[in-house]
Amino acid sequence: MNILETFNKKLYEPAPASFIGWSRIVILLILLWKFLSRDYSIFGLMPEDLAIAYAGNTFDPLDAYVALGFKPIVDLFTFHWIHAFLPFPTVNMLYYLQLFLEAMLVVTLFFGGGYKKLNYLIIYIVSMYLLGFIFSMGADIDEIFIPMQIVLLLFLFRGKETYILSSNQQNPLNYSKENGWFFSMVLLIFIGYYFLCGFTKVIDISLWDWGRCEVANLVELNKIKIAVGDDRATFFMRDLIVGNSWMDIPGTALIYLEHLMIPLLFFKRRYIAFAWFIYFSFHLTSLSLNLFFTGIFLSWFVFLPVHRFDIKKLNIFKRFKRGDAEASPLLEE
Amino acid sequence: MNWIRPYAILLLCVSIVTVILSFYMMDFMPILYKLYRGVEITPDKMDKLRIFGNILIHDVRIIAMFSSITFAILLFVKNIKQYFLLVAIGLLVHFLFIAEITEYAIFKRVYKLFLMLPLLWIFFDYFKFKKENYEKRITHGFLYLMFVFLIVPGLYAPPFFSGIQGWTIEIDKKEPILIEGVFLVRQDGKEIRYTRGITNPINFLQRIDNFFINKHPDKLEALLTFYENIYIKQYSTLKEGKIPSQVIMGDFSYPTHNPVGAFDYSSFPPSSIKSIKIIRKRYRWNRELIDKEILASKEW
Questions:
Q1: A49 vs A71, A311, B223, B230, CA distance in Å?
Q2: How many CB pairs under 8 A join A and B?
Q3: Which of B297, B226, B224 lies closest to A48, judged by CA?
Q4: What is the rounded CA–CA span in Å between residue A161 and residue A114?
Q5: Coil, helix or strand for A16?
Q6: Residues A69, A59: Cα–Cα separation, whole Å
Q7: How many CB atoms lie within 10 A of CB B256?
Q8: Fewer Cβ atoms within 10 Å of its own Cβ: the N or the C terminal residue of chain B?
Q9: How far apart are CA A34 and CA A36, in angstroms?
Q10: Do residues A111 and A166 touch, judged by C-beta distance below 8 A?
Q11: Distance, in angstroms, between B185 CA and closest chain A CA?
Q12: What is the C-alpha to C-alpha distance for residues A332 and B187, in angstroms, rounded to an integer?
């Protein structure tokens, strides 16, 4: 069997419907938490002629990081092209728009995507519009892109949902190819995100540069900056890193290698927990550099095998119903 | 694969022309400077521009010569298998040697773009979007999109982008430590840091400040007025020792991308502020202040 046949087989490898419900809950909760903790109405205070600090303009073009992050491209994807027809929003307009989004997130959390999953499309458009004020500056990129891609996938998914307050849903323990496709696509979103980051480590820097990342010294520098009045926060994580320069090369190389090898996860899914552990440690360690990728860090929770809880729940229910100590052995698997 | 030969010839010609043009590149540097900064270069900055220009020319020449060799070999490629082999070898040699002796990512990514561009057609041809079912079309569309982002340098279309660079951080402890940011100055002269926590969700204030300082100094006053208005709007939260992201969820709010330290604004009500400034301070590693430069200032 060649790699393409294996890919197609894996793409439809049956998965439990619980994954759809659980990933829906995780992603919507992340977004709800984020929007409840942010005030996008401040952009109503911004004069329109200040809204020019696009990523393509603010980053050094020689770094090529987001060199094509110019207004026409970014506005197209963040729905800010609407300002060509409508005036720049006021504080109140943005406040109510954010409130509407939060309400939509709550409703969708309980009742699902609704007719043709349009709720997810609305959430995607409004979120992208509000986040677009930040995305246009090239910020929040590595923080919330994965959740947003999953929201889009939830809209595109044609199967029934789970864990919603509606009779029109699947049994969480229903294994199907369609559910398997959804699982594979979520996995591909993670793989795409990390692999692209890994590939840049091969193009932008050489193998010898892999050992030129003085994290420990940088952490020490950050510590001094805080002492002289910088606005970074203090973390215990920082003290674990300072002075431990020996961690620089193996730590960086391990992450780069994981980035590059992550496509294998699509074929060897039993290693998801291992990959999760490495990235969990990586994102926690980044706290020492005063960076926290909350959205992506929490998005990994979609892979929590919640169907096992459903199986246990069902077994307990069956035992209770039958008065029988032995539940179906099939369900124990 | 008939089209690969003209493609190779075209890129070979472009690479050779680039090498030739690089000998005249220093003449174009002031023009490039004006295009990027929007202002003519002043004589006191010419030396810096010359040093920078020499690095650019070095990079352009190395990459263009490496491209010439790669695309000369591409002329002899007969099938997809050989092309894949050339891509793999090209990337490996680049990773091991070329990336090491060049500095700027943009030239490396442009080499990757031209080396891998034919793959876009090969994969498009392979996927044959119209013949697939709904799910496969989405999967292949997604993979194709990822591939476009992999190849096109610096492509940025939220929520997709081409990945962050590698980290090559070398700290020279003899160099001064820079602290740059917005400060509020009270009428009695006391100052406090205006943190990114106040403007959250805007996180990278320094990046925005530098953009306006370097490229749109005429809009600096409007920028500082914007910061001022945010401070006035959020002050009721700030005086309680919270940042605006903590209004609803308190200590359990979604963390800011760059966690912010605690600053006490209770004694800095908007009515007591005299001015708002963007300041650059330089310190030694022993925390001794070297100097302080005011980059922008506005009366409150």
A1: 13, 57, 10, 17
A2: 297
A3: B226
A4: 10
A5: strand
A6: 9
A7: 24
A8: N
A9: 5
A10: yes
A11: 14
A12: 72
Half-sphere exposure of A320 (CA within 13 A, CB side): 6
Which of A67, A178, A231 lies at the smallest CB-CB distance from B193? A231
Rounded Cα gap, residues B58 and B107, in angstroms: 11
Beta-carbon separation of A218 and B95 below 8 A: no
Q: What is chain B's length?
A: 300
Q: Do A181 and A153 form a contact (C-beta atoms < 8 A)? A: no
Domain spans, chain B: 4-161, 177-299
> Residues A91-108, buried b or exposed e (16+ Cβ, 10 A)?
beebbebbeebbebbeeb
With CA atoms as reference, the chain A residue closest to B167 would be: A213
B293 bridge partner residues: B280
A252–B167 C-beta distance less than 8 A: yes
Encoding tokens for residue A65? Answer: 């990081």
| Dihedral sign, Cα of residue A71, residue A185, residue A120, residue A193 | negative
User: Which chain A residues have a beta carbon less than 8 Å from that of B89?
Assistant: none
Among the listed residues B192, B218, B156, the one whose alpha carbon sits nearest the alpha carbon of residue B272: B192
User: A74 contacts in B (CB within 8 Å)?
Assistant: 156-158
Alpha-carbon distances, residue B59 vs A82, B62, B100, B105, B108 (angstroms): 41, 5, 11, 10, 9
Instruction: Give yes or no for A138 touching B (CB within 8 A).
Output: yes
Q: Which helix or strand (DSSP H or E) is residue A49 part of?
A: none
Q: Which residues of A touch B203 (CB under 8 A)?
A: 134, 139-140
- Cα separation, B123 vs A188, in Å, equals 17
Q: Can you tell me which residue has the tokens 């959390």?
A: A109
- pLDDT for A8-27, tens place per residue? 899 999 999 999 999 999 99
Alpha helices, DSSP H only, in chain B? Answer: 4-22, 25-37, 46-74, 80-93, 99-101, 105-127, 134-151, 196-199, 205-215, 220-238
Q: What is the DSSP string of B74-123?
A: HTT--SHHHHHHHHHHHHHHIIIIIHHH---HHHHHHHHHHHHHHHHHHH
- Complex ipTM value: 0.91
- Interval A51-95: pLDDT, tens: 888 988 888 888 888 888 999 999 999 999 999 999 999 999 999
Q: In this structure, are strands A175-176 and B156-157 parallel, antiparallel, or unpaired?
A: unpaired
Residues A108-162 have pLDDT tens digits of 999 999 999 999 999 999 999 999 999 998 887 778 999 999 999 999 999 999 9
pTM value is 0.92
Nearby residues of B288 by Cβ (< 8 Å), 6 or more positions away: none
- Read off the amino acid at residue A176: S
